[in-house]
Structures are given as structure tokens and as C-alpha cells.
Design goal:
By secondary structure, the protein is an alpha/beta fold. The protein has three domains: 7-58, 434 Repressor (Amino-terminal Domain) (Orthogonal Bundle), CATH 1.10.260.40; 64-160 and 301-345, Rossmann fold (3-Layer(aba) Sandwich); 167-299 and 348-364, 3-Layer(aba) Sandwich (Rossmann fold). The protein is 41% helix and 15% strand. The chain has 13 helices and twelve strands. The chain has helices at residues 7-14, 18-25, 33-46, 52-58, 77-88, 105-119, 137-142, 167-180, 196-211, 228-239, 255-267, 301-320, 323-327; strands spanning 64-69, 94-99, 122-128, 147-150, 162-165, 186-190, 221-223, 249-252, 277-282, 295-298, 342-345, 348-350. Helix 5 (77-88) links the parallel strand 1 and strand 2. It is elongated, with a radius of gyration of 26 Å.
């Protein structure tokens, strides 16, 4: 079997260090032009295919950035990953993707963290919506490992930088919009109460009602599951009531649940928006194309991904700078969590057809505010 050419072979033939070879392979500018040309000529002559792992380790750094995501079928994940990948592409790092199954969330997250610690090839971790599994990430961060969190499901662990959307403000604006259209019996379909985001969006709903002098009617608030089936179940319960008790508008805490509301209204022979105004939350790609097109709160998904990965890259550089100081610490010493930034990005209300506000019950109206 022919010998596989390595970065060490290229360095030996070119009479340079492996670090210089790595810098040429990554197109770094601070290499003598004649040396660069000699290395590239040898690479071509030897048919060398660089290994990102070997090249990174030869350069004295870990070559990979890990991204931990839930199921890839989640509607916001593709856009978020595109924004992350566009930033990583401009660096010398490569991105490795880990997906956590919903059925074995805790076990999968623990295995991934063990793998990261064992291989030592990953420079940092971006964890997207890890939920309650985020507690496992504290172990990584306490060892000085760069971790950034994008989450809305559970309180951020101490010492880990966190980026999220302003769920409360977004829900407030969605509800206020319905109030300004004249609605006063506004129902809210919550997400699962085990998630922080569900409480934040409920609080925004309450904020808008209270600001308008409206009492929060507990009978108009039902717990869903963020999925169409849960939205449909809750909507059927709300819309099957006598006309005087039925809401004239529904704010659903996710677009998926809003799709379920549309299905329930169709089942009951109700028209959206003529008989029922509807607002969702997320602005999934499909929301502009359902009929009627869904009014919703847009999460800043692209900005969340972009800012998170840039923050992670900054942390990686900061962690690499004080290596000499850390090497003087006892082998058993662990760094205490540093004060970590909490970045909350604004949402925006996207007005489409589903909140048209042709009310069926004049007694349910308020003057515009």
C-alpha cells in the first residue's frame, strides 16, 4: 500500500515547520512568497490532500467548531445554521454538527459532551435550543471550554454566554395589535409550561391586556404543545363555546399552533379573518404561504446565529491567548464561571391577512387606542 502523504512529509520536503505548511494551506498572508510557492509546488507534486484535523493540530489549535442542535426538522434551524455557516466559512475552522433526538435529549447531550472532551479536537461549542440539557454545558464551561447558548426553553446556566429573542415584547406587540384592531376577547394558546419561552410570551400577552385596561380571563388561556395538533385541540375547545363566550381573536405562541387554529376554524365553518383574527409567533417559512397568510411575530433567527457564532469565535481567541497562564495552574484546578453576556435581540410584527379584524360580535369591540 502506498504511503499516505502527511503534513509532516510536506514540511520535511519543503524544509519548513508544520506550522508554516498549515498557514499556507489556510491561505494566511504572513508567509514568504517564495516559501509559499515552494510548499504549494510540493503539495501538488505529492498529491497531498490536507486533513483539517492534522493541519489544525499542527498549527497548535483545535480545527473544529461544534454546533449542537435539536431535530433538523425544527422550522427555524435551517436559517439559523445558514447564518452560522456563512461566518464559519470565512475562518480557518470547520463546522461539525450534532443533532439531539427529542426522545433521548439528556443522554445524547451527555454523550456529545463526553466526546468533545475526549477528542480535544473542538475549539468551541454553539448549543442551539438545548433546553434542560443546557445544565450539562456548565461542565464544559467550568473547564475553560468556550460555549455559547442560543435558547428560550430554560434559564441560562451561570457563566455561559446566552443569546435569545425578546419573547415578551414580541407577544406584547402581537396582542396590542389585536387590541388596536378592536378585539377584547383575545384568547392565548400557550406553549408547554415547562419552557421559559411559554411564560415570557404569556407575560407579554398579559402586559398588553393590562395596558389596555382589560382583565386577563383565565378561561381564554389554554396550554398547547407548540405543534399543529395542540393548536387545533385548543382552538376547538375555544371556538366550540357559545357565541357570547367565544374569542374573536387568538394569539398562538407558535406558528405551528396557529396552523392548527386555521384547521379548527375550517372544521367549525369559521372564516379567518372575517370571524376570527389570528396571530402566531416565529414567522416560519411556510407562514407567508398558508391561507390566509399568517400574521406573526418574526424571530431574529439570522441575527441570533450570526451574533452567537461571532461571540464564540471571540471567546476562542480569548481562551487561546492566556494559555501560558493557565498552564501554571495545578492540573486539578478549574476556572470559575466568568460573568457572561446576556444578549436579547428584538422581534418584529409581520402583518399579513389572518388578523383582518372584521368582527362578528360588535359587543366585543373596544375603541381604537
Amino acid at each position: 500500500m502506498a504511503h499516505k502523504v502527511t503534513i509532516l512529509d510536506i514540511a520535511r520536503l519543503a524544509k519548513v515547520s508544520t506550522t508554516t505548511v498549515s498557514r499556507v494551506l489556510h491561505n494566511k498572508p504572513d508567509v514568504d512568497p517564495a516559501t509559499r510557492e515552494r510548499i504549494l509546488r510540493i503539495v501538488e507534486e505529492q498529491g497531498f490532500v490536507p486533513s483539517i484535523t492534522a493541519a489544525g493540530l499542527a498549527a497548535g489549535r483545535n480545527p473544529l467548531i461544534s454546533v449542537l442542535v435539536p431535530a433538523l426538522t425544527w422550522p427555524l434551524i435551517p436559517e439559523l445554521l445558514l447564518s452560522v455557516a456563512s461566518v464559519v466559512e470565512s475562518t480557518s475552522y470547520e463546522m461539525v454538527l450534532y443533532s439531539i433526538s427529542s426522545s433521548n435529549h439528556e443522554r445524547d447531550c451527555g454523550k456529545i459532551i463526553d466526546r468533545i472532551l475526549a477528542t480535544r479536537l473542538t475549539a468551541g461549542l454553539l448549543a442551539v435550543f438545548p433546553g434542560q440539557s443546557s445544565q450539562h454545558l456548565t461542565r464544559l464551561r467550568r473547564q475553560g471550554f468556550p460555549v455559547v447558548l442560543i435558547d428560550d426553553q430554560s434559564p441560562p446556566p451561570e457563566g455561559i454566554p446566552w443569546i435569545g429573542a425578546d419573547n415578551r415584547r414580541g407577544a406584547y406587540e402581537a396582542t396590542r395589535h389585536l387590541i388596536e384592531l378592536g378585539h377584547r376577547r383575545i384568547a392565548h394558546i400557550q406553549g408547554p409550561l415547562k419552557y421559559c419561552v411559554s411564560h415570557e410570551r404569556y407575560q407579554g400577552y398579559c402586559d398588553a391586556l393590562q395596558e389596555a385596561g382589560l382583565e386577563v380571563d383565565p378561561s381564554l388561556v389554554l396550554e398547547g404543545d407548540f405543534m399543529p395538533a395542540g393548536g387545533q385541540r385548543c382552538a376547538l375547545a375555544l371556538l366550540s363555546r357559545p357565541a357570547s363566550e367565544r374569542p374573536t381573536a387568538i394569539f398562538a405562541a407558535s406558528d405551528y399552533m396557529a396552523y392548527g387554529v386555521i384547521a379548527a376554524a375550517e372544521t367549525l365553518g369559521l372564516r379567518i379573518p372575517q370571524d376570527l383574527a389570528l396571530v402566531g409567533f416565529d414567522d416560519n417559512p411556510a407562514s407567508a404561504h398558508v391561507r390566509p397568510a399568517l400574521t406573526t411575530v418574526r424571530q431574529p433567527v439570522h441575527a441570533m446565529g450570526e451574533q452567537a457564532i461571532k461571540l464564540l469565535l471571540e471567546m476562542i481567541e480569548q481562551e487561546q491567548m492566556p494559555r501560558r497562564r493557565r498552564q501554571t495552574l495545578p492540573a486539578t484546578a478549574e476556572e470559575s464561571p466568568r460573568e457572561a453576556p446576556r444578549i436579547v435581540l428584538p422581534t418584529s410584527l409581520v402583518i399579513r391577512e389572518s388578523c383582518g379584524a372584521l368582527q362578528r360580535h360588535p359587543s366585543a369591540l373596544l375603541p381604537e387606542i
